[in-house]
Hints:
The chain is an alpha/beta fold. Helices cover 42% and strands 17% of the residues.
Amino acid sequence: MGARSAIRLYNTMTRRKEELRPLEAGRMRIYSCGPTVYRFAHIGNLRTYMFADVLTRSLEYLGHDTHQVMNITDVGHLTDDTFDRGEDKMLVSARLEKKSPEEIAAYYTEAFMHDARMVNIQPAREYPRATAYIPQMIEIIAKLIEGGHAYEVGGTVYYDIASFPAYGRLSRNSTDQLLSGTRGEVDPRKRHPGDFTLWKAAGEHRLQVWPSPWGPGFPGWHIECSAMSISLLGDRFDIHTGGSDNVFPHHEAEIAQSEGVTGHQVVSCWVHGEHLMLSGTRMAKSAGNFFRITELVEQGFDPLAFRYLTLQAKYRTKLNFSPEAMSGADHALRQLRDRVSEWSAAPDGPRGELDQRFRAALADDLDLPAAMALVSELIRSDLAPGAKARLLIEWDRVLGLDVARSPEREALPDGAAVLLSSRERARAAKDFATADRLRSELAAMGVSVTDTPDGQKVVVRRS
């Protein structure tokens, strides 16, 4: 690790890039909003978590120690959090899958960890589960009531947004805009339609219930992150990450809670990643237009090809996903690994200024497209092959593409190469009936063939 380098990040709160000055020299404390473990994470979710991963990797590459906390939401996230309505997502899945909420949480937490490993997301320092922090949530809520920021009606506690004049600052929502966004019947117990729930009284058939000073109930989604972040990182920390959909209401509410209870700014810099798009629409579980990373692998793609794809766009811009883009990323990643493998045994040599430029790209609000352009420039450069390989492996500490992994050269079964060649000729001649017949013959041999813009993609099934 060399000398520590400064980094500039776009702060959602101020709408500008700012140099990040750590509260503790050389150490960055980061809280990342994690998954609600009621369904599988899709690749749009993974893009957000990969952005947080690249941020921590970049900070470490630039010489900073990092302490990242990522929460696991296993209670209290409603199907309509914007308007404080609907069912708890955990309980919806528990009912549909005929399992307990604890079984649902355990199953989908493990699935999330599995998928995160597939795209090389380094583990956070801590993964707190919301259900383990109920006492801390109750303590904060009690202090908010005592400080005049919250009120209780019939066992439910609401945050009084009128008590916090800065409410709406992060999302640029005014009180009038909040009112105009209210749909349907407003909860008559609220002083203001925009007030949000901190603690909700349990209904008769509620599965997850905890005792509290206001009666049996369960926490709201927003209070969970205030309790976990302050408990684990302290009442002042450096960076809070999440997807752009978290800005309102989740992070807006979190600021009101955390600053309401501490009396001062808690988060130095709010950083948000943009959505992954599919056919011009945001990829979302509710819309049903999503893929899990395992599905891409079943289609023959290297899971890190998806990571390669996300590195082509700035984290603050929307990224369009398509099979064609995945094919291109998969092909480019395999070529990159081939080159590193070829060059690794060659002599080293001077590395020039490329690493300084790579660091500068990271320090400029994680300019990953500029960093990936430097990868291409390095490959084409006249540096010694050994120097190229070692610099690419060094940069991979940030990129996370496993460039030093030996290229996969799974042996084809006898006769498969001839059939693949024949099939390629048949497709070129638009003889699709023959191409389909040959695909079936290959499948019977354990060779899966997918047609891509770059030609046939072959996966050999391991016996």
